[in-house]
Amino acid sequence: MSLTALLMAAVVSAAPGHTNDAPPLPRGLQKTLEGVVQAYYAGDSAAIWRALAPMLARWSESQVAALDRALAAREVPGVGELLVDVRMSFVQQNLAHVLPEPQIRERMLLLAALGDRMNAILEEQREHPLVAATSDPPDSLAELEWTLWDVHVLRNKLLTAARAAEYAQALAGGVTERIRERLSEEEQTLLATAGAPLPDVQSATEALDELDAELRLNRLDRGLAALEQPQLTEERFMAAWSTQHDAEVLAAFLKNQSEGRGLRRLTRAALTRPGLADEIAAKAERARQLAGDLAEKARHFFVGLHWWRRGRFGQGPELGGLAKSAAAAETPGGLVWLYMPSEPPLPDPARERADKKSEDVADESADQSEADASIDFSTPSDRMRIRQPTPPVERRHHYTWAWEDRRIIPTTGAGTIDQVLSESPTRVGLSRFW
Amino acid sequence: MTETGVVVPPQDPQLIYRIVGFLEYGMAIHHLDEFVRRASSEELEIADAIVRHRPQFDVRTNLSRHIGGPSLLNEPVAGTGDSTRRGLAWVLALARVELGAMLAGFSSVAQPFQFVAPTPYETHAYREILTDGLRVHYWSFKRDPAVANYPRTGVPEQHIITYGRRVGVARRFLEAARDFSRRLVSPGQQAELNSWERDFRRFELVLLYCLAQKISVHGERFEVSEELWNCPSLCQAAAREVGHDLTNRRDERSLGTFSARLSDLLASIDPTLLAVPCQHTPVQQPPIGGPRRRR
């Protein structure tokens, strides 16, 4: 199959259809299955949870396995994966309280998943070249921009890890002695170590906060030097924005420190010199004078690019990254929250290489293998379930139409549309979206 | 008395806020427009260079070449065949087209692409990305086996809303591409645009007809409200086809009767619709697009 055909299949195909090659389920499970599948394709995590979690304790292993098979036949993840994903998505958005307390079976699944995620984030932080001190900070403003972006993403991941650790502690603490006694040794260990990574997460966060401040101090100086040059260059243009931004962030950082709300102890010498806050204020004022009205123009430009990057590369927790969660959409903060790639995002490089080959080379089989290595989908709804560091879409509008947010509902009884459609959660309205 | 009905759930007006990119591209356009408005030409050049030098802001265009057929509307391929565009204008244009498409699919804004119309600074880039979007949607329709089968199989119920949205988005792309290229298209291209529009319309008629049939079969009695037609794309299509603004039909008491009438009206526009087996129960279709490719 050629790359062209592969891409065509992705773009042309329909909303989820299915084959019924799994054995028939008992009526109750079948109803659950339909509810879960519909909620999954509608991107409604809370509905998935409502359909599965209350029933989990009542189902036997064989019933769960049967449901897993039926879900797989509809190309939907299994029960355990779905429940953990839903909970984790709520934890990451700081919305764990929205769902009721999990029962013991779900609780143990969650604790294992939380531990894995916390450890993965901590490892990523430890291995970062600037944290591990295996490389020096960059020199240019452009490179510093990316280093700070890296740090920003890592800090947000640590914030998620901290939430996960706190939630894990709460989950473990909520298990009664009577239930603990029935658990296996392995499960008891899981309970006992649930919140263990929290101190590591906190110290990693502090280390990054300090690194961020030092990098900004460095960039403030370089920016000021660039502004001293009268001719308009890329560096001067960038400095017109970065100096203002860095001065604000640093002032807030030092204010927190002076008020005892910051880090326990600063370890980087550059941040401990006397009179630093006044020095930064003076530099900010000098930068403002030098930049003039360029500061405001540059602010619009860089803030605009920042938002664009979020639109192009951000991923929500639903529909494989194409949508934000319904719960998050009820809060202004939740509307902004997105997964962002920690590496400087790029357009899909494997596809680009494959495209180039397809234009250069007659043998398209090579294109296919390279494209397949990065593109694992065959329908638009597949796009709504793949989570990659960078969204595997060039245009969101190629896929979002397939969001099956509603179905035509046949009704029986004297119901009116208002009754049938009574579920209408309150949502935050933004009168203006920019 | 047991009564049956069919509900077309209303489009959640807040749903659009959940699409990643809606808030983000909106904010991006707001700030970047402000920058373009205030910046001197020298500052614009510098900003453009900053964008050009960062690969994450590359915009790949002519995506339709992967699926397209021969067409006068195809983009001439440049000498190098390179489809990557760089610069602030492309960044802005992409944001506008994505945002316009979101409005087309998930809002009742009648002319979504006018709502995000470009400034002269990025009109060229906008037109190119917009037209490419139109081509992608058109060729994906033409090559979609489900679409090809609908006149024979009817439309599965679970496809009516999604495909209704899809064809609505495609038509908004077409209308916008025509508006923004009015003085630039040749008579041949104009004729092709008209032909594409007929194809979209034909498919939309099938969707509408099947929807009307389902409602008239099931809907013995129904409380009609404007919400019933609150699938903006199909509502607008129905209004266009039968000359009613259905969203204002607050006085309509019998949906079954009205839907039957709508079916008749649609069939009078396109008699071949009578052969579409829409009364059938939902069609179980095999996975479309072939088996999943896992590695």
Tell me the strand percentage band of chain A. Answer: under 5%
The average pLDDT of chain B is 80
Question: Low-confidence segments of chain A, ≥5 residues, pLDDT <50?
Answer: 1-20, 353-386, 413-434
Helix content of chain A: 55-70%
Strand content of chain B: under 5%
**Averaged pLDDT of chain A, please?**
77
Give the CA-CA distance, first to last residue of chain B: 55 Å
Number of strands of chain B: 3
| Helix-and-strand structural type of chain A | mainly alpha
Textual characterization of the structure:
The complex is a heterodimer of chains A (434) and B (295). Chain A is 61% helix and 1% strand. Chain A has helices at 3-12, 27-42, 45-56, 61-73, 79-92, 104-127, 141-173, 177-182, 185-192, 198-228, 234-258, 276-291, 294-313, 332-336, 349-360, 365-374, 380-383, 417-420; one strand spanning 409-412. Chain A is globular and about 75 Å long. Residues 1-20, 353-386 and 413-434 of chain A have low confidence and may be disordered. Chain B has helices at 22-38, 41-52, 88-106, 112-115, 123-142, 145-153, 157-180, 187-218, 232-242, 255-269; strands at residues 4-7, 59-60, 84-85. With 295 residues, chain B is an all-alpha fold. The interface between A and B is large, with 102 and 104 residues.
